[in-house]
Amino acid sequence: MTVIKSNKILASPIEYLYDNFLKQLRERKLDRPKIILMNKPFNLYLTDDQADTYIKTIEDEIFKKQIYYPFKKLLKKQTENILAKIEGDLDFIDLGPGYPDKTLPLLQYLSLHCNSLRYMPVDISKHFLDITIEFMKKYSYETIPLNCLFEELPQIMLSHKIFREKRVRLFNIGFTFNNYPSRKIFSLFKKYLANNSVGLIATETINDDITKALEPYKTKKAEVFNFMILQNIGFEQSSFKYFVNYKNSCIEMGFDVKKDIEISKSLSLKRNDKIITSISYRYPKEYFIKLVNRHFPKSDFFWAANSNICLVKIIGEG
Ligand SMILES: C[S@@+](CC[C@H](N)C(=O)[O-])C[C@H]1O[C@@H](n2cnc3c(N)ncnc32)[C@H](O)[C@@H]1O
């Protein structure tokens, strides 16, 4: 099986992370308390250990009850409607499969209704790609893994021979949609969805009371998972206090510095500095619908019963 590797793939992920951290710490030295942004969506998955810990984190019952079970039910009930009119020779491009059990019902349906199907998982994490390849072995779909960033894909699609054939393309990002500012992820999808390709995004919308949406992120497992970014840089957990906030449509996770930490002779983290390790966007229902329609007017919304979980089918403008 060929694994397409991008040229820009982060060859030394930990060095990349550390350089990014130092660069921000050096900026405007006097500006305190400092807020250091380490929340690039892929920072959580740079090592095999992080990928394995992610799987344990989403196995938490609170996460399953709130997001995973309603989404699985939604797929079970609505797969046929979601995938209606998708036919011909299809490339199913799975953006960040993680553990791909949620993708499976879609692939099973498509394999029966399309002339031919190629499954293309795209992930910065080679470990997640390996897990995906292993998971899919039983199902004998033609699998072409791409070990690259989502952001590199438009260029790869223009230049790589596997994309030269004229085929229908379906891009599935699932809940990873929530980790990007909407403008950024929609502009990337506009590049993907030329020629009437189809995109699938998933989200949880919020009500006035945000308490319930914050719960899955307040668990010990979520704290350990978030801390791994700082652990990769070389920090001890005892120097930090975990926080989860909601503001400006973002669930923000990160750590407050409890006491000064010397990094080098001239650089230190100071008490009350903040490091943001991840952000998950959440919008009120009506706002989310308007937001999607503004970018992709030909969208269909599928809601899980009795919950705020939604899958949206978005169609490119041709
Ligand atoms: C939160 S997991 C999502 C798993 C699954 N799709 C779901 O909806 O539950 C995010 C996945 O996307 C990958 N990822 C995140 N940002 C990425 C990027 N910019 N380029 C490539 N892979 C990325 C991660 O390595 C990880 O496998």
Structural account:
With 318 residues, this protein is an alpha/beta fold. The protein folds into 2 domains: 12-59 and 211-281, no CATH class; 66-207 and 284-315, Vaccinia Virus protein VP39 (Rossmann fold), CATH 3.40.50.150. It is 36% helix and 24% strand. The strands form 4 sheets. It has a 7-stranded mixed β-sheet, with helices on both faces. Strands 2-13-10-9 form a 4-stranded mixed β-sheet. Helix 7 links the parallel strand 7 and strand 8 (198-204). Helix 2 packs antiparallel against helix 9 (220-233). The two termini are 32 Å apart. The model has no long low-confidence stretch (mean pLDDT 91). S-adenosylmethionine (SAM) is lined by residues 41-42, 45, 96-98, 102, 123-125, 128, 149-151, 174-176.
Helix and strand layout, with pairings?
Layout: E1 4-5, H1 13-26, E2 35-37, H2 48-58, H3 61-82, E3 89-95, H4 104-113, E4 116-122, H5 126-136, E5 142-143, E6 146-147, H6 153-159, E7 168-174, H7 182-192, E8 198-204, H8 211-214, H9 220-233, E9 240-247, E10 250-257, E11 261-262, E12 268-269, E13 274-281, H10 285-295, E14 299-303, E15 309-315
Parallel strand pairs: 1-6, 2-13, 3-4, 3-7, 4-5, 7-8
Antiparallel strand pairs: 8-15, 9-10, 10-13, 11-12, 14-15
Bound molecules: S-adenosylmethionine (SAM).
Beta-strand content: 15-25%
CATH fold type of the largest domain: Rossmann fold
Mean pLDDT: 91
- What is the total domain count? 2
The top-level CATH class of the largest domain is: Alpha Beta
Radius of gyration: 20 Å
Helix % is 25-40%
* CATH homologous superfamily identity of the largest domain: Vaccinia Virus protein VP39
Which class of secondary structure composition applies to the elements? alpha/beta
Oligomeric grouping of the chains = single chain
Annotation, overall tally of beta strands: 15
As laid out across the biggest beta sheet, the strand order is: 5-4-3-7-8-15-14
What kind of sheet is the major sheet? 7 strands, mixed
